[in-house]
Structure of FAD-dependent oxidoreductase:
Amino acid sequence: MTHSVTDSASQSTANATNHDSPANPATDASAYSRLLQPITVGKKRFRNRAIMGSMHTGLEDDPADAPKLAAYFAERARGGAAAVVTGGYSPNQLGVLSPFAHPFNNEDMVNAHKQVTAAVHEHDSLAFLQLLHAGRYAFHMESVSASATQAPISPFPSRALSDEEVAQTVQDFAHSAKLAAEAGYDGVQIMGSEGYLINQFLSSRTNQRDDRWGQQRSLFALEIARAVRAAVPKDFLVDFRMSMLELVEEGQTQTEILELARGLEEAGVDMLSTGIGWHEAQVPTVITSVPRAAFSWATARVKEHVNIPVVSSNRINTPEVAEQVLAGTWDNTGVETDFVSMARPWLADPEFINRVQSGNARQINHCIACNQSCLDHVFENKRATCLVNPRAGYETELTLQPINAGNTGADSIPASSENAAPKAAVIGGGVAGLFGAEALAKRGFSVEVFEAADTVGGQFRLAKQIPGKEEFHYSLKSVLTRLDAHNVKITTSTPMTANEAFAAGFDEVVIATGVRPRIPEIPGIEQAMAGEFNVDVITYAELLSGAKQAGKKVAIAGAGGIGFDVAEYLVEAPADAGADGTAGTADTTTADITAEPQPATIGEWESAWGVSRRADLPGNLERPHPPRAQRKITMLQRKPSPQGLGLNRTTGWVHRISVAAAGVKQVSGVAYTKIDNDGLHLNVPVNDATKTSKAIRKAQKAGDKEKVAELEDDLKNNRTDTVLDVDTIVLCTGQESVIEADFESLTEEQRSRVHVIGGADVAAELDAARAIRQAVELAAELKR
Ligand code: NAP
Ligand code: SF4
C-alpha cells in the first residue's frame, strides 16, 4: 500500500533557494519555507520537515526511566520537531543491544511508553518507535545473524538463525509494531541499516545462506515490511531506515539498494529513512570532519526511484543545510527530498525549529558533531547527553529555574540593590565561561564576562583551526549570539581578579580562566624557547593561534588528543619554511574567530576516504587518496603503548587512520634527553615499543609472567640514544590551570561567592564537556 503524499511546498521551491549561506544563517523565517512547510503522509500530518532522528540515550533500557524519556522528547516536541524517533528497541530478547536492555514485546513496555507518546502529542508532534534487532552487533553471548560470523567490532561470535527462527523474527517485528500502535505511537521505524540484523541479511558480507533467505537477500526485509504493515492500523506509519550507502567491503551496491527501495514501497512502507555505513565501516559517517550533508546525493538517488517520501540524514546540523537538502540544491543533486532527520542537533538545541520560526536561527546551539557526550556515552554504557547542552537527557534533573531577585531566604545572599537582578562576573571567556554566562543569564542574573585576551573562545578558538573541526567556529558564533540576546556584556583585553569584581559591585564571581600549555622539563628547553638554538620550541596554543609557525621538520611532543590535532593541522598547513629549513612562515592561519573556516569539499573528502558514487561498486568503496604531509612530522610519547589509545571512543579511530595515512611517523616509549642546535635528543627503546607493549599485553592475558618480565626488561634496558633532526618542536604535553586567585585577601563570606570552574579548576584530562557541564550545574545550583 502506498499512502498519498500531500506536498504543499512543491510549488514554492523557487523560494527554497532564497537563503543565506550555511556560514551566515538567515534570520528571516521565510528563507526556510521548505523546512517549515507541513506535509501529510497517509493520514498523518507533519507540521514541518524536521524529524528528530533516533538516538539511543540509555534511558530506553529500563521502563522505570520512561518519565525521563518523556521529558526528553517533550522538550524537542515543544521546540518544534515534527516527529521524534525513539532509540532502538528490539522485537525480541535475542536482538537486544546489551544484556540489560528490554525488548519492546510486552504490556509493561506498552504502559511505560504511553507517557512518552502522550508527552510528544501534547506538543503537536508525532512519535515513532524504532524497532532494531542488533543481530551480530548484540553485546551478549547469544548474538545471532544471517550466517555464523563475528563482527570486527564485537567480542562475541554470532550463530546463524534457523529458517524457523528467521520466520519467527519476522513475526516478532510485526508483534512489536502492533504494540507500538497500542502505546500510542504514530508509526514505527524499522531499522534496516548501519549493519544491524536486517542489514546483515541484505549483504553478501554477512549473508552466506543458501536457503530462501540467502537466495533472495532482500526477502527478510521485505517480509518484515509486509508483516508489520499487515499488523498495524491503516493510519499507522511504517518507516523503513535503509542503508543508502554501505561503505563496507562486499556491501550492497547502489543498484541493489534502489531495487530494495522499490520492493519496500510495494510491500507497503510509507516512507524511507536514511542510514549511512555500517558501524564497522572504516569510513567516518557522522563525525565533525565529514562534510555537512555529504551523503544527501545517495538519498536523492533513491528518491528518484520511488513515489513515497524519503528522509535525508547525516551531518545536517543547520537550517540552511536542511533547506538546501530538501530543495535539492545542496551538492547539486537537483532532487527535492521530503524530510531531514537530525538527531544530535536536537540534543544540542531542543528549540531548533522554534528558533528558525521566530527568526532566531543564528541562536541555534550548534552541534559540533564531536560525539563526545552522545555517541561516546552510548558506547560506554553511560546516559547520552550533549557537550554543548548538558541538560540533554537530564531534563528533569538539571533545570535552570528563574531566580528571585529579591529573595532573602536563609540560603541566599541579598542582591546588590533591592529587586535588581544579582550581578555575576564571569572571569574568563573560554567555553566554560561563555556557556556558564548563558546559563546564569537564563536564570536571570545580570552577567558580564571579562576576558584577558583580545578575543574570547579559549580552547574552541584553537580547536576550530584543526582541519575537520571547523564546526567549533559556529558553536562559538552561536553562543555569542545568544549571549548578546541575553544582554551579557563581554569585555576583552581585561584581566580581572575576584577582588576587583567584588569592588565593582558583583555579587557572584565565576573564575573560568582555563589552562595554559604545560612546559615539560627538558634540558635546553628554556634556551630553545628563547630563540638561542636553531630549533624552535613552541606550544600548540602558539601554533594554532597563528602566533608562531612550524618549519619543515617537526617533532610533536605528546600524542594525546591535542598532539593528534596538531599532527592533522601540520599535515594540511602548507610547509613553505625558510630555505635554511628553520621555522618559517609555514601557515597563514589567523586567530580571528570571525574568519570563516574553509572545510574540505564533499568531493575532496570522498577522494580522501575512497567513497565512490558508482552504482555497481559493492559498498561504494574505491581506493582512498588521503592527504600526505608536506613536511616531516614525528609524534612522540613517553608511554610505550600505541599512540592515540586515549582518544575518544567513536572518533579516535578516524584520527589514528588519518595521521598514519598522511605519513606521520610515531615513536613511543621515548625519554626526552635534551634540546640543542642538533635537534631533539631522545633515548628510545631499540625494539619498536608499541610492538613490545602489545606483546606484553598478550603475555599478561595468557598469564605468562616470565614473558612479561622479559619484555618489560627489554623496554626498560635495551635502549639507545638518538637525535631527531628537527627545526621545530611543538609541545602538546598537557595543561596546567590558570588561576590568579587572590583568595587570601577575600573575606570568608566573599570566598563563598567565588566559584572556580573548568580547566581553572582541574586541568588534568582537560575536557570541554566536563567544563561546560560544571558551568551549567553551577548556574543551576547558585542559591538566589
Ligand atoms: P592528553 O590527552 O592528556 O595528552 C597529553 C600528552 O602529553 C600525552 O601524550 C602525555 O603522554 C604527554 N605528557 C604529559 N605530561 C608530560 C610531561 N610532563 N612531559 C612530556 N610529555 C608529557 O592531553 P591533551 O592532548 O592536551 O588533550 C587534552 C584533552 O582534550 C584530553 O582530555 C583529550 O582527550 C581531549 N582532546 C581529545 C581529542 C580527540 O579525542 N580527538 C582532541 C583534542 C583534545 P606521555 O606522558 O606518555 O608522553
Ligand atoms: Fe553534537 Fe557533540 Fe552534542 Fe553530540 S555531544 S550532540 S555531537 S555537540
In short: The pocket of NAP (ligand 1) is lined by residues 518, 520, 557-565, 637-639, 646-648, 651-652, 655, 732-735, 765-767 (CB under 6 Å). The chain is about 30% helix and 15% strand. The radius of gyration is 28 Å. The longest strand covers residues 237-245.
